[in-house]
Amino acid sequence: MPAWFLCKIRYRKEAENGKQLTINESYLLDCVSFTDAEARVYRELESIIKDFTLTSVSPMKVADVFHYEDAETWFKCKVSYVSLDEKSGKEKKIQNLMLVTAENAKQAYERIEESLKTMLVPFDITDINTTNIVEIFPYYAEEKVPANFRPLKEVEAEQEA
Questions:
Q1: Which of 156, 60, 147, 71 is nearest to 110 (CA)?
Q2: Which of 2, 16, 82, 109 matches a 20 to 30 Å C-alpha distance to 88?
Q3: In the 8-state DSSP scheme, what is residue 105?
Q4: CA–CA separation, 28 vs 21, rounded Å?
Q5: Which string of b and e fits 19-43 if b means at least 16 CB within 10 Å?
């Protein structure tokens, strides 16, 4: 399960009338630690925003992220369902937080319903809120081989010779 970190940044931008504006933005990143989140937010945004300050990094428990290309607004949806505890045999209420892109709250509701229609237990969408998340950066493994690495066959051939 991904570990999501909400990174908030602040930077100054000049408006069309010449006035300086302070802009606050939030980005969600899939990272392994606070340090990784801080490094990645600088790496991801350095080409977009020249001079910014990272104001906070905080973990965010997100069960799933549903990205649709036709919308830019991220909605935070709280989904609850009842699960049976195997040890005690009691029912327990589970609440998950999910993010979805949509044009409005109604569309966000419909997209969450569509995404979860294969779920075997009945669920309720109890909360839908607009977020100030600008973009989400999922984790992509970098398949770069370090320069000092060589194929195993070459190393074995040297040892045999």
A1: 71
A2: 2
A3: H
A4: 23
A5: eeeeeebbbbbbbeeeebbbebbee
* CA atoms of 141 and 2, how far apart (whole Å): 13
Residue 47 burial (C-beta neighbours within 10 Å; 0-12, 13-18, 19+): exposed
**CA nearest neighbour of 9 among 62, 65, 54:** 54
What is the C-alpha separation between 143 and 140, in angstroms, rounded?
A: 9
Question: Using CA atoms, how far apart are residues 53 and 11, in angstroms rounded to an integer?
Answer: 6
**Using CA atoms, how far apart are residues 8 and 27, in angstroms rounded to an integer?**
6
Question: The tokens of 65 are what?
Answer: 């992220």
| Closest CA relative to residue 28, chosen from 56, 69, 68 | 56
Predicted local confidence at residue 144, as pLDDT:
62
**Each residue of 124-143: pLDDT tens digit?**
999 999 999 999 998 876 65
| R_g (Cα) of the chain, nearest Å | 22
Report d(CA 11, CA 7) in Å as an integer. 13
What pLDDT score does 143 carry?
A: 54
Longest Cα–Cα distance of the chain, Å, equals 74
pTM of the complete model: 0.77
- In degrees and rounded to multiples of 5, residue 148 shows phi and psi of -85, 0
Cross-strand pairs, 20: 14
